[in-house]
Amino acid sequence: MRKILTNFWKRFFHRKTIFRNMITLSLFAAIIPVLVVGIGSYLYSASAVQSEVNQSNVRILNNVSSTIDSTLDRIQNNAIQMLLGYFFSSNLTELKNTNYAGFYSRSSSELSALMNGNKEVGDVAMYVPDEGYLISPIYGGRRIEGIAEREALLKELGTDDQIKWVSGPYPSIPGYNDNGVTLIAKMPLLAKQPIGLMFIRINEELFQNIMKRFISYKGEQMFILDDKGALITSMGGSEVPPGLFDRVTQKGSEQRFQFAFNGIEYMATPITSSFNKWQYINMVPIDQLNAKSNGIKLITLVIVLVCLVLGALITLWGTRRVYRPIQNLVAYVKDGQTDEVETDEVGFVHKRWAELSSTANDMQQQLSDQLPLIREIFALQLLQGRFLYYSEDQLASMLRRYNVPADKESIVIVIAFDLQSEGKVRFQENDRELIVFAVKNIASELIQSHAMEGIGINLLNDQVAVWLYRDPLQAEDDESDIKQFAERLRLLVSDYLHLQVTIGLSGKSEQISELPELYEEALLAVRSRIIVGGNQVIAHTSGKSHSDMHYRYPLEIETHFENSLQLGDRDEAVRMMDEFAKSMGAAIQKPELIQMSYYRLLTAAIRTAYMLGLDTAQLFGESNEDPYLHIRNISTTYELNAWFKEQLVEPIVAYVHGKQHQEHEQLIAKVVRYMEENYHFDLSLDQCAQICGLSPQYLSKLFKKKKDLSFIEYLTKVRIEKSIELLRTTDLSVSDVAERVGYQMKNFIRVFKKQMGVTPGQFRGSDEEN
């Protein structure tokens, strides 16, 4: 064991001076800060944790109180706003006497809206003592039959309070027997003679759910008491400890106090609500507070010790990793030598540097052999504008390095080929790299044969560019030479490879900085074959045509196209496609604008299909072919329109027609169900249209189409059928039957006689005789 340790010390510390120094410095830098931070954290946590835990109870109660108070205040404000609104501020007594069904229908709608806007509310009810009738969105309409309950509610109506909160059960209202709070308000609000009461019930679960989020200690209890000391709700305890409320009211300015209950010492923290003077009391066992504080101190000490151990281990491991490149460098420069390093590593590397210099010279020679390929890559980057932000001196230096003249006129040619050719096909899709290689070689040989200067460039996109540069004086005498050269090049490539070849020819410029613009001009000329056709030399047109200057995307056609798809109007959608294709004529010199415009129209059509519920699999099949890639491969606007009509217009129109039929059936069924459930109220076409989200005119037309009856005729049919049932099965008077089915007496007799041929009384008499 001793021998092993001796060898370890000799190997890693005796000779490798850099490694030894790195370990010493790293250990010092890692351990000292950990000790300082650990001791400081331990001392700080011992004093700060206890104070922080003591203050947390106050924050908890403030959060609980603020959450509950803001909820109650919001509900009360919403109730006041409703009671001061147009409906409840009107003459409710006159409305009830003149339109009994309409009064209760509108009241029910207002109560439902209030309840839907306040999710915390358990129930909203309205009580009118004249009829003893209570309506609620939850329980519906019902009468208060108990004499004691009706007297209690009548007494409540005679009090001076316009609006107030009541805690605990409210037995006068059925369903309000559990713990909670109830908001009682008179209606109309502030009226001298109110006609009824409104009740808003908030169940105990709301408060318990809010309190539950803030319970964090084992054995912790939380109570909410009203200003009289009565329990509203609690968490952790079912009853208020005796003497707790008296201690809270007598505490004065004391923020917290200790309280003993069932042999356990608690830290009690009370808060008084400014909204309703409720007492929020939190009780946490003192031993739980101390346990958390002590636990944090212990964890701090453990973390410090663990960090010290891990710091030392990571320092040794990290130093070894950092030293490894130096070790590898020494091993590399030794070049197989087995001699030990007599000096430190830096000295040994310095000694070997002279030997490696000769090897570097050999590599430089190899680099020179690769200069043509590097020169081509430089030319490609120059075309793509990678050196636009270089200074003139930097750019001139790079041009000299790659033997490219900087004071000559430049012209760019872009060569594109199409594998789809007439006659025998010599190449397949996977032969594109071979074709590009052949095209570049033909271009390079033609440059040499014409005694011209230039560079053939593989654009890495199945196209080849030729950068030609010549003396400006020569260019003035040989203006047509470039076009002849381009045509000669196109014919050679086309004849040799039996392919359709298109060449884009740029303008000319004496500025190297404008070379990317020349490249873009040549690319645009090649792309314009989508309009003017391929298999030719296309020269870039200098300047912009009148139509090109005023081109804009036809947004109005796109909008009309989307609307036609949404309505399922196939003929109009096809007409918009034809108009869209005509508008593309303004961009004949910018084919990329045509492609971008069809991209945008495709996006609009896919968006419309998505909004209608139609996914891409139904449009483009399970293969999920990329439609944007498909557009890129189409060569003419005529083919684009045909593809749009087949892949988008036809499926979307068919889907819309099917969906409209199904939706109409569902809407009419919904209206019929609503009419059969609410026929006794004052129903209108506008009300049913609002429920369906349709205009009254459209609903009327659709209802007539589906039911062969108008809205009023069908409603009359339902009411007369219900009245016949009441006349046959009950002893109700004719006026009561009229009220039950939503008619006034005079109108009921007139409508019944028109439908049945006899009055309601005659119908009942004849029915009894039979």
Structure explained in plain terms:
This protein is an alpha+beta fold and 770 residues long. It is built from 30 helices and 16 strands. The strands form 3 sheets. The chain has a 6-stranded antiparallel β-sheet, sandwiched between helices. A hairpin with a 4-residue loop joins strand 13 and strand 14 (463-470). Helix 24 (637-677) crosses helix 25. 23% of the residues are buried. InterPro entries: CdaR_GGDEF, Homeodomain-like_sf, HTH_AraC, HTH_AraC-typ_CS.
Q: Enumerate the strands of the largest sheet in spatial order, edge to edge or round the barrel.
A: 3-2-1-6-5-4
Rg, Cα atoms, Å = 45 Å
Q: Based on DSSP secondary structure assignment, what is the total number of beta strands?
A: 16
Q: Level of helix content?
A: 55-70%
Give the overall shape, derived from the CA principal axes. Answer: flat
Category from helices, strands and their pairing:
alpha+beta
The first-to-last residue Cα distance is 121 Å
Low-confidence stretches: 544-549
Strand % is: 5-15%
Q: Overall mean pLDDT score? A: 79
Largest sheet: number of strands, sense, barrel closure: 6 strands, antiparallel
With helices defined by DSSP (H or I, 4 residues minimum), what is the helix count? 30
Pfam family, one: HTH_18
Domain HTH araC/xylS-type: 669-766
Organism: Paenibacillus plantarum
Protein name: AraC family transcriptional regulator
